[in-house]
Write a structure and sequence with these properties.
The chain is of the alpha/beta class. The chain has 12 helices and 8 strands. Helix content is 56%, strand content 13%. Helix 7 (162-170) crosses helix 12 and helix 8 (172-189) crosses helix 9 (194-215). It starts with a strand and ends with a helix. The structure holds NADP nicotinamide-adenine-dinucleotide phosphate (NAP). Residues 7-13, 32-35, 38, 53, 65-68, 70, 74, 94-96, 117-120, 170 line the site of NADP nicotinamide-adenine-dinucleotide phosphate.
């Protein structure tokens, strides 16, 4: 029987555990957390088990969902147990900036590892998750995709692209929320009640994003389709261009990427 253990049940570990419990029988899932009450409460809600890090590390899939800076101490405590295992298991890390090789080094063996990069919309099944793997079989990769299917869209990419991807879809939600907030401020300035302004802005962004994905059209062509000649929208486009909107967003991605690289070198 395949068992799935989680070490760390915070924002992201909890969100991914929630999705995994939709794809597999929750009895096969065990949650561990430094503050055990957090794992116990989530386990009670999802109908799965809670236990210790050692119990989670005895599962067929071991999801590592602690902060990157907590990973060395947590894995070093589990090293002897992992080394003594005779059965096959896969480690799954979601720690920003820690490479597959680094996770193998910290865990003390060349174990099969999947490195995934989720984002917060995964908590409602609308995530974008990139992943890369080392030492897994095609069957294990396919099984991982089935386990994570309820978390959102999955894409396997080379590890060299993970940092860039994480700066678009991992950091991106923060900038999307800034955009929604700013749109809502504009709506309020024009007389809309705040709650309606936020609802309209958020649904507009969700719908526009779905249209990009479903139509396959270039965002520029979809933008052109909204701009009637001599109309209001093109006036807003003109103003955003004057204020270097697209350049600022592009630079935000590059700034996040530079920081990610710096943090990676510091580890
Ligand atoms: N949040 C995001 O948008 C995002 C996106 C991509 C990747 N990630 C990655 O996801 C991982 C988790 O991030 P997060 O945002 O979920 O952080 P978080 O909310 O702080 O959750 C981390 C959890 O790990 C627990 N923990 C810490 N040390 C532990 C240990 N030694 N043994 C067992 N549990 C331990 C903490 O327990 P306590 O309850 O005691 O604090 C906490 O519940 C990070 O590696 C991060 O890089 C996050």
């Amino acid at each position: 029987m395949e068992t799935i253990g989680f070490i760390g049940c915070g924002n992201m570990g909890g969100a991914i555990a929630r999705a995994v419990c939709k794809a597999t029988a929750p009895q096969n899932v065990l949650l561990a957390n430094r503050t055990p009450e957090k794992a116990q409460a989530l386990a009670a809600e999802l109908g799965c088990k809670s236990g210790t890090n050692a119990e989670a590390a005895a599962c067929s899939w071991v999801f590592l969902a602690v902060k990157p800076q907590g990973m060395p101490a947590m894995l070093s405590a589990l090293m002897p147990q992992l080394a003594a295992r005779k059965d096959r298991f896969v480690l799954v890390t979601m720690a920003a900036g820690l490479s597959l090789a680094r996770i193998q080094a910290l865990s003390g063996g060349r174990y099969p590892v999947i490195r995934m990069m989720p984002n917060t919309p995964a908590s409602i099944g609308a995530g974008m998750i990139q992943f890369c793997a080392e030492g897994t079989t095609p069957e294990e990769t396919a099984a991982f995709c089935r386990l994570l299917a309820a978390a959102g869209r999955l894409d396997e990419i080379p590890e060299s692209l993970i940092d860039a991807a994480s700066c678009v879809s991992g950091c991106g939600p923060a900038w999307a929320y800034q955009f929604i907030e700013a749109l809502a401020d504009g709506g309020v300035a024009c007389g809309l009640p705040r709650a309606k302004a936020i609802e309209y802005a958020a649904q507009m962004l969700a719908g526009s994003a779905s249209l990009v994905l479903e139509s396959g059209q270039h965002p520029g062509a979809l933008k052109d389709a909204v701009c009637s000649p001599g109309g209001s929208t093109i006036q807003g486009v003109r103003l955003l261009e004057q204020r270097a909107f697209r350049g600022a967003v592009t630079d935000a991605v590059i700034a996040a990427y530079d920081k990610t690289k710096d943090m990676g070198q510091a580890k």
